[in-house]
Design goal:
Length: 328
């Protein structure tokens, strides 16, 4: 039995419910591996587990993304070997990533190629695979299409912007400050709207000669929902990928017809990586872009596990840009 440190919480609430505890890690069961973490991803989705937006049993671990080195194999694990560098992301089945060591289902793991470090992997597995399905599975993009990207200076935003430029798209990003706007521009945004003092929908219409955009990627939710709809061209697609400002209020679907026969979807990464072949295809394309330098991963915040409370405070205060990780 191995003793290790892990961040856990015993009740839902503010960041202060997170505690660093000593826990036992046993030997892996059939289909599992024991993984020594090198780096752990910090994602806004983590706050949804902590605050009860995503209900889970209590007490529980925190985090769903990390990378590291396999220390021990369970029975029946044949696709990996001790010493392999791997990364993973998921949902309920991978909760507990904020830890030094843990047991992980082998079918959640992705082997890392030589050109990808563990820190880079922890910073991009969830964000990168999310960006991959948004760019390659949600909409049949054609060169010249225009997208509106909320939170353009965030972890997903910076990857989507770069990927969109590889596809020949025009990117209109939104940020809350000039500092973040500069970061967004440096990563491919053609136009940046500062939503703290600009009307997003009006500015989008100006930039598109009154037409609107093909697709909106909205990770903000409640505060931006209507302006996102008002930014779409006729028969455009609204992709709800998060609710940082709170859940979207109920609405009558007739609203979509009134605003131009719009489409709306609320996808989840889990449904785009459930099929092993599709997960591999998305991961391979992502890793190739990153290893070649076509897409750069910005790790702008590093924390230790003992700083989990502060890390969540920074996330919710929108103080972070790019990706954030815990270094083990």
């Amino acid at each position: 039995m191995t003793l290790t440190k892990a961040v856990r919480f015993h009740e839902i609430g503010t960041p202060d419910v997170l505690t660093l505890e000593q826990v036992e890690v046993g030997s892996p069961k059939a289909g599992e591996v024991r993984l020594r973490h090198v780096a752990v991803g910090l994602n806004y989705a983590d706050t949804y587990f902590r605050n009860g937006t995503y209900p889970i049993p209590m007490p529980n671990g925190m985090g769903v993304e990390a990378s590291g080195v396999i220390e021990e194999l369970g029975e029946g694990v044949t696709d990996f070997a001790v010493g392999d560098r791997v990364t993973y992301t998921g949902f309920i089945n991978t909760l507990g990533a904020y830890s030094e060591e843990r047991l992980v289902p082998a079918n959640a793991l992705i082997k890392l190629p030589e050109g990808i470090s563990c820190e880079t992997a922890a910073a991009m597995t969830m964000r990168g695979l999310t960006s991959a399905y948004l760019m390659r599975r949600i909409y049949d993009f054609k060169a010249g299409d225009t997208i509106l990207l909320h939170a353009a200076a965030g972890g997903v935003g910076l990857i989507v912007s770069q990927w969109a430029k590889l596809l020949g798209l025009t990117v209109i990003g939104t940020t809350s400050s000039e500092e973040k706007a500069a970061i967004a521009r440096a990563h491919g945004c053609d136009h940046v709207i500062n939503y703290s003092h600009e009307n997003v929908a009006e500015r989008v219409r100006e930039l598109t000669n009154g037409v609107g955009v093909n697709v909106v990627f909205d990770s903000v939710g409640k505060d931006t929902f209507m302006s996102s709809l008002d930014s779409l061209k006729r028969r455009g697609l609204m992709v709800c990928v998060g609710t940082a400002s709170g859940p979207i209020a109920e609405f009558n679907p007739v609203l979509l017809a009134m605003k131009g026969s719009l489409y709306i979807t609320r996808p989840a990464l889990a449904d785009y990586i459930a099929d092993p072949a599709e997960k591999k295809a998305l991961a391979d394309e992502l890793f190739d872009h990153v290893a070649s330098g076509r897409i750069k991963i910005e790790i702008n915040q590093r924390y230790e596990l003992k700083d989990a409370v502060q890390a969540h405070r920074d996330l919710e205060a929108r103080k972070t840009t790019g990706s954030s990780i815990f270094v083990i």
